[in-house]
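Could you help me review a protein record that somebody else here produced? This is what I was given.
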Amino acid sequence: MSDGTDAVTQAILEAYSRLTAAFWPALHAALSERARHRAGRGEAELRRELDGYVAELGPIGLFWKLDRVLDRGPRARPPSHLTYQGANSTFLAAAGVTRLGELVGRDDFDAAFPWGAQAARFIADDRRVMRNAETIGYIERRTAGGVVGWNRVAKAPILAGDGAVLGVLGMYESLEAELGRRLYWEQVTRDDAIAV
């Protein structure tokens, strides 16, 4: 653990575990078996494990952003400025890039990303996750070209061993229309009941 990268990779794996447990239980079952054997592994082994999960997700988008406090220099941005540090191929395609190197270090306000109009909302979610160190998830209704679609979206804090929040790990997947509508309306009904 000379440079702390294995601690960060461990923290990302733990955030992935919390997220899959809460929102993708089928993925979590295989993960929990592997996690039992994780203690004492070095950075290379942890990195291979993380890369394996990233590759196994198929159509589920995965990304993580870290607060650049980890490499803050004299001209660094203020705390809680999250930049992308990792993703799978599904997320890279959504971002309009083909290689991870084209994503790393950029933030949601980058004009080249297709989600520019939603950047403020994404960052508000990130700040909520970081401020409260909580895992969140919701069904999102989206419209593109007059067609309604549905996404399951979830985010978890990436926590250091001392509990400090290092960043955010996020996952999302497109849902079939009927399932998306049903889950969305369950969510709206639940949220309305809580607000009363």
About this structure: The radius of gyration is 17 Å. The first strand starts at residue 61 and ends at 67. Residues 5-195 form a domain with the Beta-Lactamase fold (CATH 3.30.450.20).
